[in-house]
């Protein structure tokens, strides 16, 4: 009996990779997700970035098994001709199945309870220190405690965006708004939009927003060609002002990280006030309003402007530790130019990430990011399980001769600064000129 299955080739599939025409392949079946893209919980960018490809590994990584039941409505009736999986892909999917059978995706541990306890404690102590003490030292420590609160709320917001940390979706959404919008002043909708794009396009200079920090930082001389950010939809112009700033980025890195929160505030408002579709926009804006009521009100209770500035700078600077942590995992790793490819998805995740070595009692400090390789390969896995699975991931990487990069917290900082320094010295090279202005001339005139 003749095979009645309808097939399309990979070249034909690649043609369906733009707005209004998004096709993907999962385990060889072709799905049309054009209309679904605008409602996709992970945002439109992940679908656009991987459209026209087989996305089996990425789909398995980011979706629970329950998601499969909804896929038939998008099935086109076509299958991918000559579809096959690499040995790495087969081993990866075996690990996913093993972890699922072990129930690791459901075992969240007590980390959420501990985090909420410390967030509540830090908030109470910070408010108490401002309202009930006249000591400058106590006010300074109160600002620092608020910074630690933001770090811990950031870990909870991160985790709740990847998997359901609460008993149901309602409470999970409540935690997202509370920890992100209300307590930290950062839109969880913006974070998910940004972070999902980062995961799917890990360390692509054109598609990963976590590497697009011009005019302040570049991690590669490839940015000197003025690449286009497909996330922000604009050209990242490497002009004379950018060159001036980048030339000293290894010196300005830590000071800028102390103020990095300002960028997150701005990005949150930019998204919520834009015409872009944002799910639950009203909740998001209300949450930000809560933050911009209680935080300025708390600061206003300090006796004078010098202490208010000190309090704000203390809270921002302590939170800067977390912003540095975000950079350590990727700045010194392998980068590339172009679209992310799902055909070497596993390899891209391992090459673009760096683990931070630390004892188990320091896991609270890193919030799960110390196992960045494991987190990128299994983003739905609760962070309490990442240490447990790391030996399995290491063995899989070893088996297929893939990097499993690790460094201590100190070493990772050195590596990051060296990456920035290398790009800074390349930016100073006057044999590769860009249009100059008075700022460039004044900073770089010698003798």
Automatic annotation (TrEMBL):
<keyword id="KW-0812">Transmembrane</keyword>
<feature type="domain" description="Cytochrome b5 heme-binding">
    <location>
        <begin position="5"/>
        <end position="77"/>
    </location>
</feature>
<dbReference type="InterPro" id="IPR005804">
    <property type="entry name" value="FA_desaturase_dom"/>
</dbReference>
<keyword id="KW-0479">Metal-binding</keyword>
<keyword id="KW-0443">Lipid metabolism</keyword>
<dbReference type="GO" id="GO:0016717">
    <property type="term" value="F:oxidoreductase activity, acting on paired donors, with oxidation of a pair of donors resulting in the reduction of molecular oxygen to two molecules of water"/>
</dbReference>
<feature type="transmembrane region" description="Helical">
    <location>
        <begin position="253"/>
        <end position="273"/>
    </location>
</feature>
<protein>
    <recommendedName>
        <fullName>Cytochrome b5 heme-binding domain-containing protein</fullName>
    </recommendedName>
</protein>
<feature type="transmembrane region" description="Helical">
    <location>
        <begin position="170"/>
        <end position="191"/>
    </location>
</feature>
<keyword id="KW-0560">Oxidoreductase</keyword>
<dbReference type="InterPro" id="IPR036400">
    <property type="entry name" value="Cyt_B5-like_heme/steroid_sf"/>
</dbReference>
<dbReference type="InterPro" id="IPR012171">
    <property type="entry name" value="Fatty_acid_desaturase"/>
</dbReference>
<dbReference type="Pfam" id="PF00487">
    <property type="entry name" value="FA_desaturase"/>
</dbReference>
<feature type="transmembrane region" description="Helical">
    <location>
        <begin position="111"/>
        <end position="131"/>
    </location>
</feature>
<dbReference type="GO" id="GO:0046872">
    <property type="term" value="F:metal ion binding"/>
</dbReference>
<keyword id="KW-0408">Iron</keyword>
<comment type="similarity">
    <text>Belongs to the fatty acid desaturase type 1 family.</text>
</comment>
<feature type="transmembrane region" description="Helical">
    <location>
        <begin position="137"/>
        <end position="158"/>
    </location>
</feature>
<dbReference type="InterPro" id="IPR001199">
    <property type="entry name" value="Cyt_B5-like_heme/steroid-bd"/>
</dbReference>
<dbReference type="GO" id="GO:0016020">
    <property type="term" value="C:membrane"/>
</dbReference>
<keyword id="KW-0349">Heme</keyword>
<dbReference type="Pfam" id="PF00173">
    <property type="entry name" value="Cyt-b5"/>
</dbReference>
<dbReference type="GO" id="GO:0006629">
    <property type="term" value="P:lipid metabolic process"/>
</dbReference>
<keyword id="KW-1133">Transmembrane helix</keyword>
<feature type="transmembrane region" description="Helical">
    <location>
        <begin position="285"/>
        <end position="303"/>
    </location>
</feature>
<comment type="pathway">
    <text>Lipid metabolism.</text>
</comment>
<keyword id="KW-0472">Membrane</keyword>
């Amino acid at each position: 009996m003749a095979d009645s299955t309808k097939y399309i080739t990979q070249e034909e599939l690649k043609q369906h990779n733009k707005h209004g025409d998004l096709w993907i392949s999962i385990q060889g079946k072709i799905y049309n997700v054009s209309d679904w893209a605008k409602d996709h919980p992970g945002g439109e960018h992940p679908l656009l970035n991987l459209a026209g490809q087989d996305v089996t590994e990425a789909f398995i990584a980011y979706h629970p098994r329950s998601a499969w039941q909804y896929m038939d409505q998008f099935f086109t009736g076509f299958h991918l001709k000559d579809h096959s999986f690499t040995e790495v892909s087969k081993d990866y999917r075996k690990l996913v199945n093993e972890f699922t059978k072990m129930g690791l995706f459901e075992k969240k541990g007590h980390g959420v309870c501990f985090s909420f306890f410390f967030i509540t404690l830090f908030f109470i102590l910070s408010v108490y220190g401002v309202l009930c003490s006249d000591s400058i030292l106590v006010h300074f420590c109160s600002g620092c405690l608020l910074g630690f609160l933001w770090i811990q709320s950031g870990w909870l917001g991160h985790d709740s965006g990847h998997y359901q940390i609460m008993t149901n979706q309602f409470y999970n959404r409540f935690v997202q708004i509370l920890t992100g919008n209300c307590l930290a002043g950062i839109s969880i909708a913006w974070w998910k939009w940004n972070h999902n794009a980062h995961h799917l396009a890990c360390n692509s200079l054109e598609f990963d927003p976590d590497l697009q920090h011009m005019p302040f930082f570049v991690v590669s001389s490839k940015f000197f060609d003025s690449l286009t950010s497909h996330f922000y939809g604009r050209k990242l112009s490497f002009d004379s002002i950018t060159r001036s700033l980048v030339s000293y980025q290894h010196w300005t890195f830590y000071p800028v990280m102390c103020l990095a929160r300002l960028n997150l505030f701005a990005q949150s408002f930019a998204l919520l006030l834009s015409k872009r579709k944002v799910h639950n926009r009203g909740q998001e804006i209300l949450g930000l309003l809560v933050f911009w009521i209680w935080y300025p009100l708390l600061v206003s209770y300090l006796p004078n402007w010098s202490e208010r500035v000190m309090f704000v700078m203390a809270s921002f600077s302590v939170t800067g530790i977390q912003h540095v942590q975000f950079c350590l995992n990727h700045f010194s790793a392998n980068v590339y130019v172009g679209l992310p490819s799902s055909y070497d998805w596993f390899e891209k995740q391992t090459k673009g990430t760096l683990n931070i070595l630390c004892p188990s009692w320091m896991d609270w400090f890193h919030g799960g990011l110390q196992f960045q390789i494991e987190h990128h390969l299994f983003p739905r896995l609760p962070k309490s399980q990442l240490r447990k699975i790391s030996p399995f991931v290491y063995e899989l990487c070893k088996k297929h001769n893939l990097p499993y990069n690790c460094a201590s917290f100190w070493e990772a900082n050195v590596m990051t600064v060296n990456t920035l320094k290398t790009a800074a010295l390349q930016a100073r090279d006057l044999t590769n000129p860009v249009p100059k202005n008075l700022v460039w001339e004044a900073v770089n005139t010698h003798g």
